[in-house]
Structures are given as C-alpha cells and as structure tokens.
Specification:
- The chain is of the alpha+beta class.
- It contains one helix and five strands.
- The protein has a three-stranded antiparallel beta sheet, with no helix packed on it. A two-stranded antiparallel sheet has the order 1-4.
- A hairpin with a 5-residue loop joins strand 2 and strand 3.
- It is elongated, with a radius of gyration of 23 Å.
- It starts with a helix and ends in a 7-residue tail after the last strand.
C-alpha cells in the first residue's frame, strides 16, 4: 500500500510540473558586439533593428564593451544597421 501511495504522490508532483511548463516563445532578440576592422570594440554605436514586414524599428546603442541587445522582438525578419561617426554604416 505504501508503494502505491508513493507512486501516486510522485505522479501527482510530476503532473504539476508538466502542467506549468512554458509554451514556445513568441518573441525573439538580437544581440551582438560591435568591433572595428582590427577587432577592437566600438562603444556608443547606434544600432537599429527594423522589422522588414512592418517597418517598425527598435533602437539601442552599444555599451563600453561594444555589446548591444534588443529584446522582446515579435517573430519575423529583421534588418540590422549600425552607425557611428567616423565609420561607414553597416
């Protein structure tokens, strides 16, 4: 009888955890590091991420280590541009 109770309790706990498992994400993110041709990081670069289907843009800037990220982007196709004084846009 104790084995049956333990199995029932284990099944119950497992079903609770499985019921709370998350669904697929409906958003994405774009991240990267901006570097110059010699490999050095470039800070304060304006990065624009544009949804090619809706033309909605989200902008950010790279930090002191050249890192940037744009979060909570709806799933889709995007064009990413980076601009900074003294460099050609990419």
């Amino acid at each position: 009888m104790k084995l049956y109770q333990r199995l029932l309790a284990a099944f119950f706990l497992l079903s609770i955890f499985l019921a709370q498992s998350p669904a697929q994400d409906t958003t994405g993110k774009v991240t990267g590091v901006i570097t110059d041709p010699s490999g050095g990081v470039v800070a304060n670069v304006r990065v624009s991420v544009i949804n090619t289907g809706t033309n909605i843009a989200k902008d950010t800037a790279s930090n002191s280590q050249g890192f940037y990220q744009v979060l909570a982007l709806p799933i889709g196709k995007y064009k990413v541009t980076a601009t900074s004084p003294g460099f050609q846009p990419l």
